[in-house]
Specification:
The two termini are 42 Å apart. The chain has helices at 2-17, 22-44, 48-71, 75-99, 102-118, 122-139, 142-158, 162-193, 195-227, 232-263, 266-275, 296-301, 305-325, 351-375, 409-419, 430-433; strands spanning 281-293, 328-334, 337-342, 383-397, 403-407, 426-429, 442-450, 454-461. Helix 1 (2-17) runs antiparallel to helix 2 and helix 6 runs antiparallel to helix 7. The protein folds into three domains: 2-190, Alpha Horseshoe (Serine Threonine Protein Phosphatase 5, Tetratricopeptide repeat); 198-263; 277-461, Nucleotide cyclase, GGDEF domain (Alpha-Beta Plaits, 2-Layer Sandwich). With 466 residues, it is of the alpha+beta class. The chain is 67% helix and 14% strand. A hairpin with a 2-residue loop joins strand 2 and strand 3 (337-342).
């Protein structure tokens, strides 16, 4: 499905850049073939949501194929392609209306409106555009609101309604500018949050440079020492200086190594120092933990950056202490999310229990932290935590500002556990649940739909049970 979308996008971009060619037609045909294969798989899995997505994607490919034929001066083939596009879009619409998927309905209306516009049926295109724009405003989807304003301006211009076209184009420009400013503010917040980690990295590099300089000074001092062998007093004086400098170097070297261990596991740090690189490692069973704060963007909008970072820093410092206590290897923070893993670099049999115990301790801390926030009149942080167990690959990427990270579908499913959870709760997968001892009391939630993963068995872990 993803490969098919990529081929469609490449063909569409090529059409925008040049006149139609046979290579574009091949790309459109390959995209449709791949979508049909994906549709057959979704039908076997009885995945209605997945089928709706593929029907919608096939409609978009055929919509672009119709434009290809029109630009190639083949109006009959263009009309057929656009008709087939609407057929698939209508099939997607039927499923999404049945499931009550407003975002999906909005997307289909957008596709039908574009087909009508390309057919020059502007009044019908206007109706479908107004429908998807109304849904976008209802569910707060700013991206589709922006697209809707741009499409309304384009359609009114095609209809000769230039005043209305100018009105909607003006609204489009205002919203685009507002969204740009909002993204810029979020980017500033993210930069402030990760400033601490960058500062550590800079401190390590600074101290390593100092060590190289002091090593050079040590060699120079040694040469001076041997050249002044005839002066015993001067020799003793130089020996005292050298002894003191060696102590300083050893102390600074130890400090640099301690800072390095703050961002890398000990085993990986030692390998980097020895060989200048660290090889990737596969772990057959670890437990991955994700945390996230609900409505953090909205809180950030009404809180000064300094106060927001201070609150977030207090939470993550507490999470760091809890992670150390339960043998969790912190991987990184991503905005307001905290990402850690149990069971590496040193494999353990209790990694699932360690991760769940740490998650319960984090929620217990957050409960006390919210009391303090409420007392101080600050917005309260409500946390979701998701956990999944499975295989991963770990390694170090980058050359200058290197980073230790883990990869694998286990990481994706752990993130889905967090997204499918509830605030103040710990949501775990079947794989994690099967490794827990009887001291943990879990509530089976049944099969819960997870984005791009279908339905997965999930459990809530009750607080105070570890």
């Amino acid at each position: 499905n993803n490969i098919a979308n990529l081929k469609d996008a490449i063909a569409e971009d090529a059409m925008d850049a040049s006149s139609p060619g046979d290579s574009m037609l091949v790309l459109f045909s390959e995209a449709l073939a791949l979508h049909r294969e994906a549709l057959a798989i979704r039908q076997k899995l009885d995945d209605a949501g997945g089928q709706a997505e593929i029907f919608n994607n096939m409609g978009y490919v055929l919509k672009n194929l119709g434009s290809y034929y029109e630009e190639s001066l083949h109006p009959k083939q263009a009309a057929t392609a656009w008709k087939d596009a609407e057929t698939y879009l209508r099939q997607s619409l039927a499923i999404r209306e049945k499931e009550g998927d407003k975002a999906g309905i909005m997307e289909v209306y957008n596709g039908i409106a574009d087909v009508r516009r390309r057919q020059k049926r502007y009044k019908e295109a206007l109706g479908f555009t107004q429908r998807y724009y109304a849904i976008a405003k209802e569910i707060g989807d700013q991206k589709f609101q922006q697209n809707g304003l741009k499409d309304l301006a384009r359609i009114y211009n095609n209809m000769g309604e230039y005043k209305l076209a100018y009105k909607y184009r003006e609204q489009y420009d205002e919203l685009r500018y507002a969204r740009f400013n909002e993204e810029r503010i979020k980017s500033e917040e993210r930069r402030e949050i990760v400033y601490g980690d960058r500062k550590k990295q800079g401190e390590i590099e600074r101290q390593q440079n100092e060590l190289r300089i002091r090593d050079a000074q040590l060699k120079t001092a040694s040469a001076i020492q041997y050249s002044l062998i005839g002066g015993a007093l001067l020799l003793l004086l130089l020996a005292g200086v050298m002894l003191n400098r060696n102590k300083v170097i050893r102390r600074e070297k130890q400090r640099s190594e301690n800072l390095l261990l703050n961002i890398l596991p000990a085993q990986t740090a030692e390998e980097l120092k020895k060989y200048g690189k660290a090889k990737a490692r596969r772990y057959d069973s670890v437990t991955v933990l994700f945390t996230d704060f609900q409505s953090f963007t909205q809180i950030a909008e009404r809180t000064s950056p300094e106060a927001l970072v201070a609150e977030l820093d207090e939470c993550f410092r507490a999470f760091d202490e809890i992670a150390t206590r339960f043998n969790i290897e912190k991987i990184k923070t991503i905005g307001d999310a905290y990402f850690g893993v149990a069971g590496l670099p040193n494999p353990t049999r209790t990694h699932a229990e360690d991760a769940v115990s740490a998650a319960l301790a984090m929620q217990a801390f957050m409960a006390q932290f919210r009391i303090k926030q409420k007392r101080d009149g600050k917005p309260e942080f409500f946390c979701r935590i998701g956990i999944h167990t499975g295989p991963v690959v770990s390694g170090v990427v980058g050359k200058k500002k290197f980073a230790y990270d883990i990869w694998g579908d286990t990481v994706n499913i752990a993130a889905r556990m967090e997204q499918s959870g509830e605030i103040n709760r710990v949501n775990i997968s079947q794989g994690t649940h099967d490794l827990l001892g009887p001291q943990f009391h879990c509530i089976h939630r049944g099969k819960v739909k997870a984005k791009n993963k279908g339905e997965l068995d999930m459990y809530f872990v009750e607080a105070g049970t570890e």
